[in-house]
Design goal:
The protein is of the alpha/beta class. The protein has a single domain, classed as NAD(P)-binding Rossmann-like Domain (Rossmann fold, 3-Layer(aba) Sandwich), CATH 3.40.50. 39% of the residues lie in helices and 14% in strands. The protein contains 6 helices and 7 strands. Helix 1 packs across helix 6, helix 3 runs parallel beside helix 4 and helix 4 packs parallel to helix 5. The chain is globular. The mean pLDDT is 93.
């Protein structure tokens, strides 16, 4: 069976990736900061009985990334999905992402989560991916990280710059891993109806976003490595 590793697997986009891959018979390594507190993920893994391994991994704590990599050492992993991410200040305190009111400590935390985290996870599991059949690393990004898309002008410095940097990481990583046969993609899930990120006012259903991204991931090959794609397969300029 093919195997996928998903970070931030305890809710929203990550949990839906777990559900869909498991339903298709994949072995799933579902990673989250606190497995004991991830009730929805735990319950789903228990109900599934086989095929889902819940692993502790906090992208802000690199020791846990290394420990997870050691736990799964020598296991070929066909697809690594770097999904774990945060928006930074939002709602009533969203002003802390705007010019003149920046919360610089939060900016560093968002950057470490959304940019450095995927880089560390990719480094830790690159050998697993290179040893697999499908050989793919996917970074869940956002069009807010584009300098071309109109939405990129949203005044969210923490989130926008972290995703722009992640897109650059993705293109550089594509070059670094090409000789090992690894395809690297950045993907925008769309404005998803996810309580943790997009909220109920978003225009893309969670199930459709993940199904679309899975289709793009499945079809991608080395010729596509370094691309930034929307969930519907469109190329995103950035």
């Amino acid at each position: 069976m093919p195997k996928v590793l998903i970070t931030g697997a305890n809710r929203g986009i990550g949990l839906e990736f777990v559900r869909q891959y498991a339903a298709d018979g994949w072995d799933v390594i579902a990673c989250c900061r606190d497995p004991a507190g991830a009730a929805a993920l735990r319950d789903f893994a228990t109900a599934s009985q086989d095929g889902i391994t819940v692993t502790a991994l906090d992208v802000l704590d690199h020791a846990t990334v290394d420990a997870a990599a050691e736990t799964h050492r020598d296991e070929p992993i066909d697809v690594v999905i770097n999904n774990a991410g945060i928006t930074g200040p939002k709602g009533d305190v969203a002003v802390q992402q705007k010019f003149g009111d920046m919360d610089y400590e939060d900016w560093v935390r968002v950057f470490r989560t959304n940019t450095l985290g995927p880089m560390k996870v990719s480094e830790a599991f690159a050998a697993n991916v290179a040893a697999s059949t499908q050989k793919k690393i996917v970074h869940i990004s956002s069009t807010i990280g584009s300098n071309v898309e109109p939405v990129a002008q949203a005044q969210v410095y923490c989130y926008g710059t972290s995703k722009a940097a992640l897109n650059k990481v993705s293109t550089l990583m594509a070059g670094a891993l090409r000789t090992r046969g690894v395809t690297v993609l950045a993907m925008c899930p769309g404005h998803v109806k996810d309580a943790g990120m997009g909220g109920p006012g978003a225009d893309v259903e969670l199930i459709d976003s993940i199904a679309g991204m899975r289709k793009v991931i499945a079809a991608a090959g080395l010729a596509d490595s370094g691309d930034f794609r929307r969930y519907n397969g469109e190329t995103v300029a950035f």
